[in-house]
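Protein: Extracellular small neutral protease
Species: Actinacidiphila yanglinensis
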Amino acid sequence: MIKRIVAVAALVPAMLGTTSAVASAQSAPKATAAVVTLTYDDSQAGQWASAITQGAQNWNAALHNVQLKPASSRGSADYVYVATAGWPQTTLGPVFPGDSGEVQLGQEALDEGYDATRIAAHETGHIFGLLDDYTGPCSELMSGHGPGTSCTNALPSAAEAAQVDRTYAGDAAAPRVKHHQIVVDVWSNAAH
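Structure follows.
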């Protein structure tokens, strides 16, 4: 009987060591692909500059596989922000390095009372390939004008960020479908 207890006692540390190794292997972070960096040019955005900066910071804080940064020179950006007199509209992405997208930030949306940072962050969502969901709650950035002018949330939801991270996971140089579609957001109170 004593021999059995000693044998079991000798096996326990070995089993625990194996179990610990399995647990730490399972909890170790997975190796991830390189982060995709998208550059933007806001030199034609005028009064929208601070809203663009804050919107980019909001996305960067929520994302793991793609990050936004200002381009080092005009003309070298993957996409540009432009201030316009009309309604916001954007090239539907996903935009990748070397592409050329455009975000038109429309004055009419500001005149209607919508928040500039929410507009800039929402339109950036289209650059990532996200579509509108006007029936969504204010907590969803891509609900756009749906929740009305009182909604000033400019943060992507966890689900929106996860969708963008899935889009930019893997090889950024892999062949992909290019969209040449423009998404026009009519942020009008008249639409309600």
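Remarks: Strands lie at 36-44, 66-70, 79-84, 89-91, 101-106, 182-184.
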